[in-house]
Amino acid sequence: MELLYKSTRGGQSGVSASRAILQGLACDGGLFVPERIPALELSLGAFAQMSYQETAYEVMKLFFTDFTEEELKNCIKNAYDEKFDTDVIAPLSRVEGAYYLELFHGATIAFKDMALSILPHLMTAAAGKNQIKNEIVILTATSGDTGKAALAGFADVPGTRIIVFYPKDGVSPIQEKQMVTQKGDNTLVVGIRGNFDDAQSGVKAIFGDQELQEKLARAGFQFSSANSINIGRLVPQIVYYVHAYARLLENGELSEGEPINVVVPTGNFGNILAAYYAKQMGVPVAKLICASNENRVLYDFFRTGAYDRNRPFILTTSPSMDILISSNLERLLYQIAGSDAGKDVELMDALAAEGRYEITSQMKERLKDFRGYYATEEETARTIASVYEDTGYVMDTHTAVAACAYEKYTAETGDRTKTVIASTASPYKFTRSVMEAIDQDRCAGMTDLELVDELSALSGTGIPKAIQEIRTAPVRHKTVCGVSAMKETVLAFLGAEQE
Fold first, then answer.
1. Is 16 a member of any domain?
2. Which tens digits make up the pLDDT trace of 364-379?
3. Residues with a known catalytic role
4. Predicted model pTM
5. What residue numbers bound the domain in which 246 lies?
6. In whole angstroms, what is the distance from residue 7 CA to residue 26 CA?
7. CATH number at residue 364
8. Rounded to whole angstroms, how far apart are CA atoms 494 and 230?
9. Number of folded domains in the chain?
């Protein structure tokens, strides 16, 4: 039975999975959601006997129903291969009573690799299925990690170009170096004078410019997105929550059907939404703990039911979470509103016009699976230091936000349900913040890349290939522009300047 997709804002429905992946954003500005969340067809015990690749197929085939078995398995095989430095793709490490799901063993050492390794393969297969002759232009805003993972995935993929916008002063030095050294004749990286929300709003405005879309179509181009607003990016993230539960079963840490809690450091809301979808598919998740940094807009939302972006934007040591407009939250709003597109439009219009909205008491009641917590900068650093001192385990700043949130949750509730914490990036991406938290004196006078060796010595772990590669790589992308010039920058790259 084919699973079709519709827009959260009601303007599109009956869209195939391949079409939704190609389009990225719905024509009315909404996000594509499946008409229903499918249930897992196999027992969780059966998944305990499967590889990551086999689990990926069993999950994704339920959502991407217009892909043939051969097409989907080929996408999975090409995505989850030797570019990951561990055999199990997403290993679990038990630290201080929790299970850290390490999602950073891919080519760019962040969790975005888990979905962005497969998205180019899904997209090119989808283009073939739909007789797309236009060149696909991937247009993406990044808060630090999506950009590099998307660039690595799409670099030199035939029939595609990729343009990534990032906040010029809002990512770590290593994140920036990873992006601006990216190879590939079809790639463009642009620094924005502004924050991530500015970049994301600019990208959405370009997607929503119908006149521009028509002009580019005449020139042989069409836009799509690699952000988690693309359903082809979101669905692969569901896989690792099914996989994590299965590994705990396999290792005898759980009995089948025993609930777990999941903690996710959260910015754009895609990763925790994937965990919510896994729960709806049949993974026994009890609580979904949404961890925020000092940009605590989601914490306030889950506590009060009011979403308000009218607040200072804070640059933190966990930059991938420095977000005040969490795009994927719209998918959750649509669901808790009873799939009411009119209500979704009302809330999104209020956010656009006033910077805030408030959900109904009935909608808030449907959020009972979620709990929100946040960590200050001081608490984040203290968590990195204390976990290292107690166990020798080194985590990055985003994972530390989640670990701090978990500690606050257990202190507040006394809930000792076994817990999986999404570890979303390697500490090597944030060497200065991690090293200063553990041993500030050791950092004096060193650059972030010089601190890589110090972190390796301190942690006893090998330096990832992704870091070794950028040490001597030349800077290839030097473009910087204001938000108002984003459209012209895109047109110039495509050779389709304003008429």
1. no
2. 999 999 999 999 999 9
3. 112
4. 0.94
5. 92-109+232-461
6. 6
7. 3.40.50.1100
8. 22
9. 1
